[in-house]
Amino acid sequence: MGATRETGSDAPGEARFLARLALLAVLGSLLVLVLALGEGGLMVLGAGLLGVVLCAAGVWWFVAHRGLLRVIGALLVFLAPAGVVVLFAYQGLWLTALILVLCWGVALTCARAALRRSRPERPQVATAAARPARPVLIMNPKSGGGKVGRFGLVERAEELGARVILLDPGAPADVAELARRAVADGADLLGVAGGDGTQALVAAVAADHDLPFLVISAGTRNHLAMDLGLDRDDPSRCLDALTDGEELRIDLGDVSGRAFVNTVSFGVYADVVQRPEYRDDKAGTALSLMPDLLVGEGVRRLDSLVDGAPLADQQALLVSNNPYFSPDEISGTGRRPRLDDGELGVLGIRVEDAAQAADLAVRGSQSTGLTVLSAHRVEVTVSGPAEADGPPEAAEDAGTDGPPEVAENAGADGSAEEPGTSGAVEIPVAVDGEALRMPIPVVCTLRPGALRVLVPRDRPGVVAPPPAIDWRRILDLAFGRTVRTAPR
Prior knowledge:
This protein is of the alpha+beta class. 35% of the residues lie in helices and 22% in strands. The protein is built from 13 helices and 19 strands. The protein has helices spanning 13-35, 41-64, 68-91, 94-118, 147-150, 153-159, 175-184, 196-208, 223-227, 268-273, 282-295, 354-363, 471-478; strands at 5-7, 127-128, 135-139, 163-166, 189-193, 212-216, 245-255, 258-260, 263-267, 302-306, 309-314, 316-321, 344-349, 370-375, 378-382, 426-431, 434-439, 442-456, 483-485. The longest helix has 25 residues, at 94-118. The chain is globular, with a radius of gyration of 25 Å. Mean pLDDT is 79; it is low at 1-10, 328-332, 386-422 and 484-488.
């Protein structure tokens, strides 16, 4: 964890003021409840909590079951919150509920602002970079719905002196091999306009040869570009790094010899993306398979060793290149505050029934169904049937980026089988959104500072995520007590 630093009595006055405002807002909400006891204050709390529980149970029944239970679940998702609103209106409690919501909104907003000001972000150090003389960029014209053509990336890159390798969507290519050939021909920079799965393959070659790597946000979601602070709306701005750039050193993930830049997923999600129909109908495929994957007979569960400590019987496991700020990465909205902290993020999920789903909805990261860790090494095996439900598929991007290449070291059937592992038990793995199969145990590690990333000097930058609420720290800030915090 490193050394700690002290804040508290010397904390900025603005942080102390905001912490006190947060506590006043909390006291205000308690006062409202006390004054409203005869007017239904407890009913407001009870009805609100019941609405959350019923809604969470409805989501579980909708996702994990078929037939009548799925219909009931869908109805609960819509009717539970609507019923709470109707109850408040009918009982004349809407004003009490509104004041409580406003008080808690003010409390949370002020608390986060206080924590952010008391513990400033440590910016990632960027160093001056020389203009590359022989940059080579690999571009996937299908990625992101055709962003390469729509933003004129080929023409713009060639104007700036780069050599462009344009992939043929109709002829799958080994992009890692293309990158290695470019290095052999004298390339002094490698770059990719494509999805994160393609980015990772070329990034590994750049890291192996200690060459700068250029990320062009031409994919669909562009998670790596987002966490690098690049412009995701206009990928052509990423090319400015060729003439006015600076360099960042970031970590590069490794999953059983294959590089990853964002996440490696095991379990439910990895099982779903293996199916060929997932590419054309993501929601329909997931809803069709979820009941069997979550509560069906012979469901596979994941066992893992996280820095040697066991984490058993998980339905889903996500390992990330540096920890995400919160479990929101499941929905694709999570951010990583840094990419150079030298640690893997680990998120384990185990929800067996509606009660556990409700517990997760109410308690969040404190729920027993959710495990959030950081580690340097994660080893994954299975505790249920080892064989996948479907046949191995070609290792292609399961998202809409659709890079056409087959995974490096893939066998003839597309499975990620290393030489000498014939007959080994394999499990589905989703690496940066690509559907692969790997022999167990699957080992995830990190190469700290392995990747040199060239970014434009003028870029939107990283939006700092709001800090997690720690009321003990808020109390310490408000009353000027010393707070010991680990540096970020």
